[in-house]
Amino acid sequence: KTEAIKTGTGTGVFVGSVPLTTTQSGSSFQLKDGTRGGQYTTDMGNRTTGNGTLFSKSSDTWGNGQASNRESAAVDAQYGAAATWDFYKNTFGRSGIRNDGAGAFSRVHYDTGYVNAFWDDDCFCMTYGDGDGDTHPLTELDVAGHEMSHGVTSATANLNYSGESGGLNEATSDIFGNAVEFYANLPKDNPDYLVGELIDINGNGTPLRYMDKPSKDGRSADSWYSGVGNLDVHYSSGVANHFFYLLAEGSGAKVINGVSYNSPTANNVTVTGIGRDKALQIWYKALTSFMTSTTTFAQARTATESAATALYGAGSPELIAVGTAWAGVNVGT
Ligand code: ASN
Ligand code: ZN
Fold first, then answer.
1. pLDDT tens figures, 127-172
2. How far is the CA of 309 from the centre of ligand 2 (A)?
3. What is the CATH number of domain 3-94+103-139?
4. Which is it for the CA torsion 53, 59, 60, 65, positive or negative?
């Protein structure tokens, strides 16, 4: 059959109405993107094995915004993979998760009542559950960016997923996941420093994590202490999430896109932010050039200082801000 690259329209649960790059194959359309490494989305049919069935139909209009329509979560997933691709390409010049031009596929409707989403290096694929009661898919953009960034970490620093390096691994995913949300800048998913604020995983409308003050979730660390590496990696991540927020936005109270933040610091430090764009360049350079599988928070400070020196110069205000932000989370003071 003749294949052609098309532009369809989708309405996701969380992304709202968005354009999607699709494939026409003969008389049918597929949720497959020939412009970004062939990324596609499949329906797992609530199974946990196999790779599901490619979304395919006779028109190029997908989903209706309701979770009960099986295409809606697929629209979110397909858009999330595209936005993540574009974010890495246009921000860092990275071509796909492994920087080899290969696209990752996404699997939706995994299992029943599955309240998680995960990246898997082996299938080179993304998987989403439908959440509690199969009515709350985990397909928000910052989750998509978070999970696929686990693939980027695997392909680069390969931070071990336990202890302090595990916290850095998780923080890397939160940092880049939220950056994908800022990159896409969708009216229906206001960019913020909250993780998973739309998926209502707690059932009371609160986000999963807060980067300005990680302890707002009741469990995450705001700053480093001896033994922070014994926390679950989703809570020790707070140290580096908080560092990143401070570096980008600075300490104290701030309103960004209508969301109020108030970021405290350790050691009575005042941090002046250098902006999200520079903070992202520093984190990416540190991850891809200076961190290793066993990097600790103290070594992450050195890695980001090396990155800031390489990018902005010795004695640059950016380098000084990196040190101040780490001091604000009690690392290396
Ligand atoms: N959603 C989880 C995460 O990315 C999956 C896991 O436990 N790795 O952190
Ligand atoms: Zn994660």
1. 999 999 999 999 999 999 999 999 999 999 999 999 999 999 999 9
2. 29
3. 3.10.170.10
4. negative
Supply the pLDDT for residue 1: 81
Say whether pTM exceeds 0.95.
yes
Query: What ipTM was estimated for this complex?
Result: 0.96
Of 164, 202, 196, 198, nearest to 177 by C-alpha is 196
Tell me the best of 116, 201, 208 to mutate to test the pocket of ligand 1, counting ligand atoms within 8 Å of each CB and taking the most.
116
Task: Specify the CATH class of 163-327 in words.
Answer: mainly alpha
**Ligand 1 probe mutation, 107, 114, 115, 118, most atoms within 8 A of CB:** 118
Give catalytic status of residue 234 as yes or no: yes
Whose Cα sits closest to atom 6 in ligand 1? 118
φ, ψ (nearest 5 deg) of residue 165: -65, -35
pLDDT in tens, 70-90: 999 999 999 999 999 999 999
Q: What does the DSSP assignment read for 73-123? A: HHHHHHHHHHHHHHHHHHHH---STTSSSPPPEEEEEESSS---EEEETTT
| Delimiting residues of CATH 3.10.170.10 domain(s) in the chain | 3-94+103-139
**170 is written with which tokens?**
């998780």
Residues of the chain with CATH 1.10.390.10: 163-327
Residue 333 in this model has a pLDDT that exceeds 80: no
Across the range 7-32, mean pLDDT stands at 98
Active-site hit among 71, 140, 147, 318: 147
Active site residue 136: no
Q: If DSSP codes are grouped into helix, strand and coil, which group holds residue 173? A: helix
Q: How far, in whole angstroms, is CA 175 from its chain's centroid?
A: 6
